[in-house]
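Hello,

I think I submitted the pyridoxal-5'-phosphate job twice by accident. Can you confirm which output corresponds to this input? Input:
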Amino acid sequence: MNQETIEAQYQGFVNQQLNLDLTRGKPCTEQLDLSNDLLSLDSMHLAQDGTDVRNYGGLKGIPEARALGSWLLDAPAENVIAGGNSSLNLMYLVLSWRMKQLQAEGAGHDPFTFICLVPGYDRHFTLCEHLGVKMIAVPLLDSGPDMAAIENLVREDASICGIWCVPKYSNPTGHTYSDDVVQRIAALPKLTPTPFLVMWDNAYAVHHLEDQEDRLANLFTLSANEGTQDDIAIFGSTSKITFAGAGVGFCALSDANLTRFERFMGEQMIGFDKVNQLKHAQFLSSPEKLASHMRAHRRILEPKFAEVYAALAPLAAAGLVEFTAPKGGYFVSVDLKRASAQAVVRLAAEAGVKLTPAGATFPYGQDPHDANLRIAPSFPKTEVLRQAMEVFACCVRLASLN
Ligand SMILES: Cc1ncc(COP(=O)(O)O)c(C=O)c1O
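Support: Only one job matched these inputs. Its output is below.
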């Protein structure tokens, strides 16, 4: 395509005064509808152990919800907390608790520093900024996290107190960590005298997009073998399984940490929403039910991802982008080879297509190459997505001219 054609095409989009959105990594209405039966599951109020879910208490959650959490987190149910509607909130609580605990023990570091893999999940970064945690960015390579770089940093910098990981179908690249990487992460806390915490956000544990599903090694067991079980916290939720705004969040901790964390939570609340926990446990009553429910999600999502790849493939062939085609998860990560990400976002906005801000996938919003963009295909209808991707492709071509 020559410059004139690209400019004319772009002007054509601007004239259409579109209003499209590719930012939102949230389930579409059709996906939410898959779980509507949850809304009518309100006749029971006793949990397996006789707990009246309508009443106060039970900070760790009801047994059947903790069992559901154990399938998602790959950890024993007795180590799982079933919480409220957000795993991100549990991450915030766990990190706050850890920082408070270390300060009380005189073991706190200033600055409290975390390793963040990039590109990564923007809300982990926001959470760190809010809690005053300094972030060091380490690239996710094609083969996964650069473990040699991470191990060197942990050995050399005593202020490093932890790492954020999205180990399966990572947001936004779709990487799943290899067995070797998980093993090395289980051993990471042993490389430093500083108390260390692995924040293992397994948000996309069952969100497959292909028959050949990725398998993730079990961090809970590996850390027990390494003697580092007190140094890991595992998270997940049903946000992208049932209702994104009304699901159940989960967290798995070692026996000792579970007791300590329960005490910390007990200072701020009496219990999470156990009514919703019971509904979820009834609705997703077995691993088989969970798996077939996720296949229904996949049938809705697959054509949308295909739409994104169809638009990106010619750009990749022209050497303008590289992109990931994840086997699961919610995002496609695009690296621009010639254009500035900020320029593409600006051009797209002027043509009526909202993209996730450039830099959002990096700590402090700073992408050193101004190259990475995250595309979220789930929410728009397929026809809308197609149109938005046409605009995106045109913007990349236009921004690549200069
Ligand atoms: C990696 C990751 N973790 C956590 C969340 C949010 O989880 P929750 O809805 O359970 O708070 C998201 C949502 O996009 C995510 O991508």
